User: Fold this.
Amino acid sequence: MSSVSEPRGIGSGAVSRTADWVVTLVAVLAGLLSAAGGATLYAAADRSRIAAVVAEGTARSDGLTEAQLVDTLHGLAWWGGIGLAVTGVLFVVAGVAFKLYRARRRRRRAEAGVTGPDTTTNAVIGAVATVVASFVPFSPVLGGAVAGYIGRSDGSSGIRTVPSPVSSPRDRWSFSSGS
Assistant:
C-alpha cells in the first residue's frame, strides 16, 4: 500500500487554489484598509484641531486638564496611526508571502508526485469556518470538523493511540504514527 493516498476530499485542486487566493486577498485587503486608516489617523493628529475639539467640549475628561487631554489625544492619534499603518503594511506583506509560499509548495508537491489533500489548505478552511461560526458555541470544534471532512482519507496518514505496556496509569498511552 502506498503511503500517499489518492485525493478523495475536496481539499485539493481547485479548492486549494481558491483558498490560497481568498486568504491572500483577505490579508491584502485588510492590510490596505488598516494602512489607509492608520494614515488617516496619523494625518488627523493635528494638535490645533484636537485643541479645538477639546475647547468646544466634544472631548472631555474628568481626570485630566485640557492641556493634558490634548497631549493624550494627540499621542494616541499619532502613535495609533503609525501602528495601524505598520500593521497594514505587514498584513499586505504577509498576504503576498503566503501566496508565494503556497505556489512554491504546490510546485514542489507536483514535482515530488505527491497527491492527496493538502493539510495546510484544510487547516486554513477550518480556521475560516471557525471565524465565520464564532457566534456558535464550540465553533473551533465545528472548524476542525470542516477541516477533517474536507481532508478525509483512508486514515493511513493519521495519528492513533496504542496501549503501551507501561504499568503506570499516567504513562499508559503513547502516540505513534499511523503507518
Remarks:
- The beta strands are 159-163, 173-177.
- The longest helix spans residues 66-112.
- The helical segments are 14-43, 47-55, 66-112, 119-132, 139-150.
- The two ends are 10 Å apart (CA to CA).
